[in-house]
Design brief:
The protein is α/β, with parallel strands linked by helices and 323 residues long. It contains 14 helices and ten strands. The strands form two sheets. A six-stranded mixed beta sheet has the order 6-5-7-8-9-10, with helices on both faces.
């Protein structure tokens, strides 16, 4: 029987209800094609309630042969955009019989492999492009992997850096900089930096200056001073938190935004709307982003055919006062 230190198991429920463990599973999972008397069903449900039994969702997903979808993320705080999208994707996958779980990985390949393979995943979704060795080893284990940016060209261009650069160019800026996150080795800033650099090349601009900007603004003024002296007039920030630190540096240097230096963030966080001045940013449409991500996962797992028909674009510029 369960104790304060051990939750109830299906065997505990079976013993109290006077049935087999398999019967408990069939009844609580509403397994089709298996018939029991209403008396037996009620006995199982009553025992489960009395014992406060909670099914093991991971075990249930394995029995259903669908399994777990693991989302591998940096071991860092996540903003509300990421949390919102993951919450919706988790719900949509659960509706289809998959158990989604989020794991945070550190810079330890062996530990990452043990953590991920411990879930016996049907697929692994990486939120950033920073674990090449882990991806390679998972693929060698025949585990399907979904990486950022695995979206067909027919569904549009989802380059955040390209959108930031195009917006600044449309405002007349020709000397740009990229403000990376301090945790760029984990957060996925190198791919974003590459997007900005590639976009600058396409527009015939010099390569962007690059500097790490701490989110608390430490050293931001010195970075802004160096950029200003180098002729930079537009900044592509890795995210809104970094962009707010850039704005802090601009104010600390006595410069004006956007007159002396324009800034574009990413994520459309509420804090950006009340910044001084309000922050121009790249906004996500969570519904469209969720549809794309769910489709990308199901395409690996079930050969889902047609891509979703999106009613809006995933990315757009939210124009405010910093540009």
């Amino acid at each position: 029987m369960p104790s304060a230190n051990r939750p109830a198991t299906s065997m505990d429920v079976a013993q109290r209800a006077g049935v087999s463990r398999a019967t408990v599973s069939y009844v609580l999972n509403d397994t089709p094609g298996v018939s029991f008397t209403e008396e037996t069903r009620e006995a199982v449900r009553r025992a489960a309630t009395e014992l406060n039994y909670r099914p093991n969702l991971m075990a249930r997903s394995l029995v259903s042969r669908k399994g777990a979808v693991v989302f591998a993320m940096p071991a860092l705080p996540q903003n509300e955009v990421t949390s919102t999208i993951l919450g919706v994707v988790t719900r949509e996958l659960f509706r289809r019989g998959y158990l989604a779980t989020v794991v945070q990985l550190f810079d330890d390949v062996e530990a990452a492999m043990r953590i991920i393979l411990g879930f016996q995943p049907r697929a692994v979704v990486f939120i950033s492009d920073t674990w090449d060795e882990v991806v390679t080893r998972l693929e060698a284990e025949s585990v399907p992997v979904i990486l950022p940016g695995q979206v067909p060209a027919s569904l549009g261009d989802y380059s955040i850096g390209a959108l930031q650069v195009a917006h600044l160019v449309s405002k007349g800026h020709s000397r740009l900089a990229f403000a990376a996150a301090a945790e760029s080795s984990q957060l996925g800033a190198p791919p974003r930096q590459a997007e900005v650099a590639a976009a600058c090349s396409r527009h015939g601009l010099p390569q962007p200056l690059v500097a790490v900007v701490e989110r608390d603004g430490t050293g931001a003024a010195e970075t802004i001073r160096a950029w200003h002296e180098a002729g930079v007039t537009g900044v592509c920030a890795f995210n809104d938190e970094v962009a707010l630190a850039v704005l802090h540096g601009i104010r600390a240097e006595g410069l004006r935004c956007p007159e002396d230096m324009a800034v574009v963030g990413c994520d459309n966080l509420p804090a950006g709307a009340v910044a001084a001045p309000p922050l121009t940013t790249v906004a996500f449409d969570p519904e469209s982003a969720t549809q794309i991500l769910v489709w990308a996962i199901l395409r690996q797992l079930e050969d889902a055919a047609e891509p979703p028909q999106l009613s809006t674009t995933i990315l757009r510029i939210e124009q405010r006062a910093t540009t």
